[in-house]
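Sharing a chain and its predicted structure for anyone who wants a worked example. Both blocks are below, sequence first, tokens second.
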Amino acid sequence: MARLVRGAPDCGREPPGQLEVWSVAEPNDRFRRVFFEVFEALPRQGPGNRASAARALALCHALPPTPSILDLGCGVGGQTLILAELTSSIITAIDNHAPFIARLRSTVAARGLEQRIRPLVADMAAPGLPPGGFDLIWSEGALYQLGIEPALLVCRDLLRPCGHLAFTDAVWRKANPPEEVRAGFESDYPTMGFVNDVLAIVARSGFELLGHFALPDEAWWDDFYTPMQRRLDELRRKYSGDAETLALLGRIAREPELHRLYGDYYAYEFFVLRRAIQS
């Protein structure tokens, strides 16, 4: 399911969501090759869009005129570039998958944004950045890799007092989802819960909730699944004589189809928080 694309998978293990999309009998090298050949070419590596980013940014009250922003798990920088359009900020963007960062650096150079966006290869758990250095941390679909509670502690330490955190996370909307959907998420995120479960973690993590909302369906299709389907078609033509690769591409293609059928069982929720003064 969408866990496939919530930031780059650790290159020492199978890609996230492998129960749904991948056969566990396949070698790791084959997992990585097909996975990245699809997702490195996409404009973003998970659900989201400009309108949702603008809505979340509007919930960040009392930011300085030019806030210092950190984008955690940036992928190829789809949301990073949106933040550059919506603000006048200096943005540090990190991801642990070097080809994602290489592509973002190329895009930044082509758009003349070198003075505003700094892409870095780094680990979200230990990014090597100064504590208390950011006014806003942004993370679309990546914090789950650390676990939401540990991720909030990392973010809290990187934020200035009263700094803001905006992140998306997958949540269940309905109980008892179809087994194929449940397995696709829970193979990578067994603690995935409902919105109230995330809010309970927020309440004990030194943050104040400013607001939250579910991503609309167009945030899944316009900049994510539709480009994914085009990329899959390109690769099917490229690998027309390779039955094994075609089978893996078919499994990846199952994800948007499952979302079309069962998207009412789950959502990506945007949470906007502020670091509590005393934390």
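Comments welcome. The domain at 1-279 is CATH 3.40.50.150 (Rossmann fold).
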